UniProtKB/TrEMBL annotation:
Organism of provenance: Desulfuromonas thiophila
Full protein name: PH domain-containing protein
The keyword Transmembrane belongs to this UniProt entry's keyword annotation: yes
Residue stretches spanning the membrane: 38-56, 149-167
UniProtKB keywords: Membrane, Transmembrane, Transmembrane helix
């Protein structure tokens, strides 16, 4: 069973990446001031890393292990080795921490699609003695978070408007509106 980051977040984030790249390309094409291109260049890096990290992140379950894959990283824990399952809720952001000894841990959040199912499957596989009361409560009523999706869509709309204004100022009457 594989869980990935929600598509509702990946779509606007991917659009945002394309818009930042298009804006940088238009700045270079139209010989905009160097400072503008440098600012966009610095903006691109965290947006692209966030997109790549979110796109590649996945949690995989089998009968004996959970494996979390991230950009350039992979970590696996055996369910039998898990000694503690903790959870924390910050506003509507939920985190589940799986600990196996002192140094081995995984953190999952409700950014994953079908998070309620992920939590139920996880708690069914780990030793019952390792599950905290908070984790049990979270499994009973997992929160749904959408503010990151709304924020990403707003950023994509704003950057789309900026890109349109940039192109309109250079191409003039060739663009509608």
């Amino acid at each position: 069973m594989t869980f990935r980051i929600r598509h509702a977040f990946l779509i606007p984030l991917g659009l945002l990446c394309l818009e930042v790249l298009a804006l940088l390309a238009s700045c270079l094409w139209f010989d905009e001031p160097l400072a503008k291109s440098l600012i966009l260049g610095f903006m691109i890096l965290p947006v692209l890393v966030l997109f790549a990290e979110s796109l590649l992140r996945q949690a995989r379950f089998d009968d004996e292990t959970i494996e979390v894959r991230k950009l350039l990283r992979r970590k696996r824990l055996r369910f039998a080795d898990i000694t503690a399952v903790e959870s924390i809720l910050i506003k509507k952001r939920a985190f589940i921490t799986l600990c196996a000894g002192d140094d081995d841990y995984l953190i999952l959040s409700n950014a994953y699609a079908d998070f309620p199912r992920l939590v139920r499957l996880l708690l069914a596989r780990v030793p019952a003695s390792s599950i905290s009361a908070e984790a049990t409560a979270l499994a009973a009523d997992p929160p749904s978070k959408s503010s990151d999706i709304v924020s990403c869509w707003l950023a994509a709309l704003l950057l789309g408007f900026i890109l349109y204004a940039q192109l309109k100022s250079h191409l003039g009457a060739a663009l509608p509106l």
